[in-house]
Design brief:
Order of helices and strands: HHHHH
Structural class: mainly alpha
Radius of gyration: 11 Å
Helix content: over 70%
Mean pLDDT: 96
Distance between the termini: 7 Å
Number of strands: 0
Number of helices: 5
Largest sheet: none
Low-confidence stretches: none
Oligomer: single chain
Amino acid sequence: MNWNQVEGNWEQFKGSVQKNWGKLTGDDLDVIRGNRKQLAGKLQERYGTAQEDAERDIDTWLSRH
């Protein structure tokens, strides 16, 4: 799967994203709206990770879907 599919079907993926990253709120997910850069930024903010780590986490999550 590629990110375009996630972005296009964001409403279906929101639950999986929130399950994987429990610190993200519903409001966070509404702001992200499928935007990968927004997701990486929120992961950095909520988890205190570096951008590279957030991107790697997203890639890992994406490979499972």
